[in-house]
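Technical annex B. To support the medicinal chemistry partners, we prepared a structural model of the target in complex with S-adenosylmethionine, based solely on the information shown next.
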Amino acid sequence: MHDKIGVLKYFIKPQYYDIYPLNWNEIFGNKRKIYVEIGFGSGEYMAALAKENPDINFIGFETSLTALYKAQIKFHKNNIKNARVIQGDARLLIRELFPSNSISKLIVNFPCPWPKERHKERRIFITSFINTLADVLKKGGIIELATDVDWYAQEVYNNFKKSEFFEPEKIIENFNRPIKTKYELKWDKEGRNKYLFIAKKIKHNKVKRVLEGVSELPHKNIRDINIEKLKELKDNHIKENNLSFTVNSIYEDLLNDRFLLKVVSTDNDFMQQYYISIYKKTKDWLVKLDSTTIPYRTPAVKFSVYKIAELIEK
Ligand SMILES: C[S@@+](CC[C@H](N)C(=O)[O-])C[C@H]1O[C@@H](n2cnc3c(N)ncnc32)[C@H](O)[C@@H]1O
């Protein structure tokens, strides 16, 4: 990726770190409090807040690369120093990247409510994420959700009400905040109702993280490989306890004694896609994570490298 205009300084690739959760004081070079925004869209809300509050560090999560790019350009144009962005599903990454009691406020503006029953696991405030928030938020930390969907505001209220870790404070109808998001302006124009839900953390919870501590790059040397066994791996779903992986494709470069395997692995709810390369060195063969796509080195990723090495060794 080129960075002619210097926006990449805002972009954090947590996969390239090797100690989790991340050390945010080191990343920002200070110990200021942390606000997180999920699904910042074009980033106007985070950019305006960050500009107004240089004493607060902001971290935004987005799944969309376009959104990430637009936000970074806004930060750059406004000479913002106290904001960073991360790509991926915030519900999983917030659990892995933040230590306990580290976030002062979580903001979610106008998320898709995923109205269909079969999509409801895609909604942001599902029970597992509320439990994560009860770990990573500071005691007294605040959740702020803005939505134009009345049943969704009520559902989120009920979910927090059920949780022993939070006190849902209120739903404010047709609130008026000084900064408006792109979706908010759109809904205001259409005259839609808006709801602002606020909750406070009152009790701590400890969740189990998939990545914790130091994470090395998995690799294994083997004497020789059995090519038939390697080819049999394709479309095989290999599972041990809560770790599993599937080899989706195998690319071979026999001239250079090299194979590239496209793998999808899951650790409970954490799914990732990456490549494992297998190639001949002077004497033996090396099975390792390919450096073109660095995944989070979760137990399932390590399991896939070591299990493949075991299964193809001659
Ligand atoms: C409806 S848009 C709202 C954008 C912006 N907040 C606004 O109010 O204009 C929702 C955004 O959330 C992002 N998103 C949805 N689920 C997410 C998740 N689990 N983690 C991070 N971002 C997510 C989407 O990519 C999308 O840009």
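Notes passed to the chemistry partners:
The chain has two domains: 8-201, 217-312.
The chain has a mean pLDDT of 94.
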